[in-house]
Amino acid sequence: MIRSLVIVLFSFCFSVGIYAESNVIEECNQEWVCLIQTKDEDGIQLSIRNHNPNPKVTNSVLLNATFVNFKTDISFPYFVVVKGPEPVYITKFFLEDRTKDAFHSFAFRVRPGDWDSVHDDSVSYLLPFARGIRAKVVQGYNGSVTHFGSFANAIDFGIPVGTPVHAARKGYVMATESKYTEGGFRKDLLSKANFIIIQHEDGTLGNYAHLMKNGVVVKVGDMIEAGQLIGYSGNTGYTQGPHLHFEVHKPNRQLEVTTIPTVFKTQYSERDTLKELFMYWHPRSGIDPIKADILEEDIQICKLNSKKERVQCGETSFRLGDNFLVSLEFVRPGTHRIELDISIEGKAFEAMKLDWVANKNLAIEARYVSITSNPKFTGRWKVRVQINGEEKKILFFDVRP
C-alpha cells in the first residue's frame, strides 16, 4: 500500500527596511502546488495554486509559516483545498515596523484529493481487473496483516504478476510510480510500491498498488473511463506475495489517508461488499449468480517440486518419483466433506482413499501424493473427487517410468 504522498517544501526569505518595488516570487514543488508571494511596500500577499493546470486537479494543503516583524489575520497551521488552476488567496503579511529587519518562512505539506469531499455512496465500482479473470480476496476489510487503522477499508486481490489492471471508476490520473522492482515483507519497502492514483468526480481517490516495474500504461493528466486498462499487477513494495491492492480514500486534516468502504458489481450482485477468501469476477449475463461453492475448473491436478511447492496445475503427465497435488479452490469458504479415490486403471490395486472435512475458514483445500519409484505404478491414474457426497469431477493423468 502507499503510506504517504506528502510533499514538504521550505521557502526562506529575508527583508530589510521598506520594500522598494513590487515583485512576485513563485516557488513550485514538482507536480503538486506552487506558493506565490507578491511583495509590496506594505508586506507580502500569499497565494497558492496547483502546479498542474488541469481544472480537475484537487490537492489538500497544510501550510505553516514562521515570521518576525509581520502580522496577519489568520493562524497557522492553515488548511486549504486547492481546486483547478486558479490561485487561492491565503492571507497578507503586513510589515509591522519598517525600520526593523523582517523575516518569514513557509512550509507546506500536500496530499492529493479533497479532505472535505463526500464519497458518492451510490457508485458501484467495477472489479479492477479484466473480464474473464477470477480473483480471490486474499485480505479484505479489517485484515489482520495490513488492513487496519487508516487502511481498514482496503482490499487485496490475489492475482499473478502481469495481470491486466483496469480502472474501477472513471477519473483523472493524479499520480503514478513504476520504477520499483523489489517486493517483500520488510518495513523498508513500505514506500516502494509502484502505483496509480486516480481522482474521482467526488474528490476521492482510487489507489491501485504493488504494480510491476514499468507496469503503468497511463500518465498524469489522462482522463480514464471505468473499465479502461491502466497497468499490470506486480509484487513491489511491502507485500507477502503477488497481489493488487485497491482502496478508495481521501485525506484528513492531519494529511493521513482515510479509506472509504465501497461496493462492487460482481457475479453475485450489482452492489456487493467483498469478503475475504471469496472469489470474484465480472458478472456474466445468463450465468451468474452461481449457486455452487466450487467450479469444476477449480478442481485440478498440480505438479510439485522437490520442496513440495506448487509449480504447475492442469498436468496430465508425471514420472515415477514425482509429487502431485489434488487442489480444490472454492468460490467461497465453508465446511465441506471431501473424498478422493485414487486408482490406476487396469491395475488390481486397492484405491487410495483420502477423506477430510474442509476448514470453513479456508478457500483452498489440497492433498499431495508422492508417486513411488516402482514400475508397477506406471499407467493411467484416475482421481475421483466427491464433495459432500456428490461426485464433482474425475481427473486422469499418465505416469511414465
Automatic annotation (TrEMBL):
The keyword Signal applies. Transmembrane segments: none annotated. It comes from Leptospira noumeaensis. Residues 1-20 form the signal peptide. Pfam families: Peptidase_M23. This is M23 family metallopeptidase. One of its GO terms (molecular function) is metalloendopeptidase activity. SUPFAM superfamilies: Duplicated hybrid motif (SSF51261). Keywords: Signal. Residues 151-254 form the M23ase beta-sheet core domain.
